[in-house]
């Protein structure tokens, strides 16, 4: 399944946050018409505008940068982040909590990989 473009993704996130375009414009300091053009795919937002939008929607600015083509998608972990952010069944607080937990697990593993179980020595030290 293809990921939606940046405008579609932003519209989904705004709707999930139950914000009108006007409310998002007020929160970001970006004009209502400009946000509308971004959502419709007529404009490509700058990194600064994406950061303001991410902050207002309380989502990962990195995920927005990747979707907008401003960062390379390494593939590691992004599918999980996208799934969490796009899940309409989760509220914003739940999304933030899941992303924080996921990020902490990746950081704790050092390599950024959550699929590596700890070695036997690590397990015995934790006990």
TrEMBL record:
InterPro entries: Cro/C1-type_HTH, Lambda_DNA-bd_dom_sf, TransReg_Diox_bact_type. GO terms for molecular function: DNA binding; DNA-binding transcription factor activity. GO terms for cellular component: cytosol. It comes from the Bacteria. Residues 108-127 are annotated as: Disordered. Keywords: DNA-binding. SMART domains: HTH_XRE (SM00530). Residues 10-64 form the HTH cro/C1-type domain. This is Helix-turn-helix domain-containing protein. It comes from Phytoactinopolyspora mesophila.
């Amino acid at each position: 399944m293809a990921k939606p473009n940046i405008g579609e993704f932003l519209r989904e996130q705004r709707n999930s946050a139950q914000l009108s375009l006007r409310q998002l414009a007020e929160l970001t300091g970006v004009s209502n018409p400009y946000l509308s053009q971004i959502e419709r795919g007529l404009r490509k937002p700058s990194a600064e505008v994406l950061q303001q939008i991410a902050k207002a929607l309380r989502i990962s600015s990195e995920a927005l940068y990747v979707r907008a083509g401003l960062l390379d998608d390494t593939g590691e972990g992004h599918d999980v982040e996208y799934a969490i952010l796009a899940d309409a069944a989760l509220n914003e607080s739940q999304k933030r909590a899941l992303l924080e937990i996921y990020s902490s697990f990746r950081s704790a593993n050092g390599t950024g990989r959550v699929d590596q179980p700890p070695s036997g020595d690590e397990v015995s030290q934790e006990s």
